[in-house]
Design a protein that fits this description.
This protein is of the alpha/beta class. It contains 5 helices and 14 strands. Strands 5-4-3-2-1-14 form a 6-stranded mixed sheet. It has a 6-stranded mixed sheet with strand order 6-7-8-9-12-13.
């Protein structure tokens, strides 16, 4: 068994606000490191904001951007691995929705969202399904990344299982189609996303013997509300840990990952 202590950041990420989002990420990295976590997972596009790049032209950044480098350096200073997401500038067309794994002062993994939803005309889909190695205090674990609408794409999780991944870190930012006006409507938004994942991720976890850990944007941005939802599913499909509402929080949970075979 390899023990992995995971922090899932259920947080607000303003659109186009790289400096503000990086500053908040640094604070949560410090909190997670102080709690002995091996990795912190941030939501989909949590660094750039999840947005229309035409309205927020500063949001898309290349992989070698100084802003991405800042995120990698922040994780190194905190002494923690970190998965962060952003809109990646694509010289060939529309940006990718990219999630990286930062570890030991370098980019240890890059994943570009494979499955785009019908309401995502602003982006280019990726095609690669890479598996990375997460180094923890207790050993090394094969892991992979997934992003939001990927939860509707069973072949991705099948590919990860076939490649020997043991943990999938799933980052999300599903927009709510109506503005939340009170506590009850915010809770209803959270319940919607929790229910949306119920028919998919637990089944993938069970079928492919995966741990799946989800971190989701929450709260009000300049023009859109997000529901939150941080969950850890075990390889038998059970919910091992989860938030119960849309409040901004850091969910910490420890898993024991069996060796492959």
């Amino acid at each position: 068994m390899t023990r992995v202590r995971i922090a899932l950041a259920q947080i607000r990420c303003e659109k186009g606000d790289w400096p503000g989002n990086l500053d908040r990420a640094a604070g949560y990295m410090a909190q997670a490191a102080a709690q002995g976590c091996d990795i912190i997972v941030f939501p989909e596009a949590g660094l750039s904001g999840y947005c229309d790049p035409a309205r927020f032209p500063q949001a898309p950044q290349p992989l070698d951007s100084p802003l991405v480098r800042q995120f990698v350096d922040q994780a190194a200073r905190a002494g923690i691995a970190a998965s962060g997401g952003f809109l990646e500038a694509n010289p060939g067309g529309k940006p990718f929705v990219t999630q990286i794994l930062a570890q030991d002062g370098r980019i240890a993994g890059v994943y570009r969202k494979v499955n785009l939803g019908e309401d995502e005309p602003f982006y280019t889909a990726g095609s690669a399904t890479p598996v990375f190695t997460l180094h923890t205090r207790d050993g090394a674990v094969p892991c992979a990344l997934a992003v939001c609408a990927d939860s509707d794409w069973p072949p991705l999780f099948a590919a990860y299982g076939a490649q020997g991944a043991r943990v999938v870190f799933h980052s999300s930012a599903p927009g709510l189609y109506t503005q939340r006006t009170d506590a009850a409507s915010w809770q209803a938004g959270f319940a919607w996303y929790q229910g949306y994942l119920a028919p998919t991720l637990p089944g993938y976890a069970r079928e492919h013997r995966l741990f799946i850990a989800v971190a989701t944007q929450t709260g009000r941005t300049v023009d859109e509300d997000f529901p939150g939802g941080s969950f850890v599913f075990g390889p038998d499909g059970t919910l091992l840990a989860g938030t119960t509402g849309p409040e901004e929080t850091l969910l910490v949970h420890e898993i024991d990952v069996p060796a492959a075979g």
